[in-house]
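User: quick one - fold this with pyridoxal-5'-phosphate bound?
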Amino acid sequence: MAASIFAAVPSAPPVAVFKLTADFREDADSRKVNLGVGAYRTDEGQPWVLPVVKKVEQMIANDNSLNHEYLPILGLPEFRANASRIALGDDSPAIKEKRIGSVQSLGGTGALRIGAEFLRRWYNGNNNTATPVYVSTPTWENHNSVFMDAGFKDIRPYHYWDAAKRGLDLQGLLNDMEQAPEFSIFILHACAHNPTGTDPTPEQWKQIAAVMKRRRLFPFFDSAYQGFASGSLDKDAWAVRYFVSEGFELFCAQSFSKNFGLYNERVGNLTVVGKDADNVQRVLSQMEKIVRTTWSNPPAQGARIVATTLSSPQLFDEWKGNVKTMADRVLLMRSELRSRLEALGTPGTWNHITEQIGMFSFTGLNPKQVEYMVKEKHIYLMASGRINMCGLTTKNLDYVAKSIHEAVTKIQ
Ligand SMILES: Cc1ncc(COP(=O)(O)O)c(C=O)c1O
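Assistant: Sure. Structure tokens for the protein plus pyridoxal-5'-phosphate:
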């Protein structure tokens, strides 16, 4: 037999967060805890189908007017309009002036990818692979790869996390923006920065926007946690809306994986804000071409769930209540973990646990301490020290807090 034509294909390394969950599943220890996964869990440690989602799914199943015909290439119109509306706000000047467009996408990742592909083809010259794309240090690891796979050759880090003070390195960030070449692309986390849980304050966002405007930098917002950070959709969209009010042209990639719990339905939206309707229509016409060769047209189920919920005032209120339930549980776990660590007298300061927001917390545990947590305590977390607060429950809090205490006191 001849050798396989694939004989020279090297094995790619596993994706860290999925590998961690696979290791967790295989672990037979009864004390095991998964703080790695990027999804909401109830206090029983279970995934949660939002009650409003269950209700709307039943409405959809009983609606005989619906069928499984292809959606338009750019997606379900009522989904696109409503998704962009919650990102930009009901009274957005850009919506009133009809200078926004939307592309339904396969999750937030799909929105980032279509946006990246468009920028590479059409932003700052045709087939531009040289424009620097800046991502925060650290960031969600897929940002790098999505832009690289879209053809960008110059992906650069920008300062974000100050490890010593366990907070935002605003000066470092602003300096990087000052020094970036004009028209560089900046990926900004709209809220609940992943993985640090640390966002700029409104005052700091204003400073960031001022530099970006002066330096003509392009903001590409990634909004994967709207509602999760504070429990309020409007508060979590403040930065995006501020940039729009300042006259920026921008992209905003939205994910409905977390705030609707629709992870595997792959529901996302890319909002384009332009100078005028004509510009936006031409951009959308090119995005349609990109979608056609990427997934041709998007899936309907998740988009129907979101569109139905967002377009009914009653269901919308119910959904906001569900989001708040999730956000409040995260906030509770934050305060419970912090108070336990402080009561144990764990060396270091732990105020960052309650000061950080969103699903994740950057604990400050170093890689050796993380290894100890995984190997000795069967508590799974990312090597960066990031933990998913939803992995904590009233039952495992004591065990996790004591384990962190041990890791910090025994291992430097
Ligand atoms: C910062 C950030 N952006 C985008 C995404 C992508 O979300 P989706 O699963 O909808 O593609 C995630 C998901 O973890 C994320 O954390």
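One thing worth noting: The first strand starts at residue 33 and ends at 34.
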